[in-house]
Amino acid sequence: MRRSKLSLAAIPASVLMLAACSQPAEQAAEDVEVGGADVQSNLSIVTGGTTGVYYPIGGALSGIIGDNLEGQSASVEATGASVENIRLLGSGESHLAIVQGDAADQAFTGTGDFEGGAVETYSLAVLYPNVFHAVTLQSIAEREDFNCFRDVIGTRYSVGDIGSGNEATTTQVFSSLEIGPSQVELQQLGYAETANALTNNQLDAGSWVVGEGHSGITELGTTEDIALIEICDDERDAIVSGYGGYTEHVIEGGTYPGIDEDVQTIAVWNALVVPGSFNDDQAYEITKAMFENIDQVVGVYAPGEQYLVPETIENSPVPVHPGALRFYEEQGVGVPEDLRPEGAPTPPEPPRSRVPPMTRAAMDPRVSSVPR
After folding, report:
1. Which CATH architecture is the domain 130-268 placed in?
2. 217 versus 16: which is more confidently predicted?
3. DSSP character for 270?
């Protein structure tokens, strides 16, 4: 992966706001000093739509920050998700963002949606894998004879909302499978609009790149007979071996109403990221507070429990922020060399008597290692 040098410049602070409020981040006030450097007294956390997983996780993080970090608060904002979130970080309108790993990697390397306009972002934590769901109705699947993903050629397909990580991932999947834009009647719809278009026969299938058990797919499955289009063996090989850091994944039967058999697909990790200028000490404090209060995050997204452990940082799509790196080293968690910010020394092997790291559950072997 292509990495660039971290620049730790001070950034202006913001006015204190209630953690649950959703307000713009550009309301500036006087700076406060922590650890001899300027930090943000109020943080803007950009997430995704209010019906998705990002938004409640952002709400949990805002509560953790407000309850545990003296003099700091955070507001959570609903957005179009990953690509928009990274652009908000780059413009200085926000401070923390929950994003998909493929979008973060594109931003860091100045590729894809960020061609010619790289945005330097760094990870505080890796959260859980987003799973690629190619959703249709059972009646449509039978009519169009959907067996493998390439069967969507010639149909009406929603790639996701404009500027979303959903769109970025779907576009990359199409590219890896050499499916050109002229081969599919593409539409750019959000999750709710995709569901409505399916039920009104205005669409044949669409992508949900989300955490397993997503409420929008579950709700659609309670009113309609749904189907998930499988990504077949050769298709998964092409996607996983290509760009984007994807991994193979299995949606187990019973996850959604009417889907009784396992479905083979791919996944991409989600990360909590900050701009390169984010304060070192503040990054450390937020990372530490999040993992010390991780039950609050699990409380809003229970399927992520097995992934919400410090060790998951090895799947980061971009380098780890130096402040967060300090936390992981204290926990005895090894951070791969290519994820260490430039200039950060490689620590010696920790002694066996070291305090063991915080753990929650064994990592799922199907998604525990993302190809880089």
Report:
1. 3-Layer(aba) Sandwich (3.40)
2. 217
3. E
CATH fold of the domain at 32-127+269-339: D-Maltodextrin-Binding Protein; domain 2 (3.40.190)
Q: How far is CA 125 from the centre of its chain?
A: 10
Q: Is 101 helix (H, G, I), strand (E, B) or coil?
A: helix
Residue 242: pLDDT over 90: no
Using only C-alpha atoms, the chain has a radius of gyration, in whole angstroms, of: 20
For the chain, give percent helix, strand, coil, nearest 5: 35, 20, 45
Helix (H) or strand (E) holding 186: strand 185-187
Q: Would you kindly state where each structural domain of the chain is located, as residue ranges?
A: 32-127+269-339, 130-268
Q: Do 32-127+269-339 and 130-268 show the same overall fold?
A: yes
Q: Is this structure's pTM higher than 0.90?
A: no
CA distances to 147, 176, 246, 293, 322 from 287, rounded to whole Å, are 43, 34, 25, 10, 11
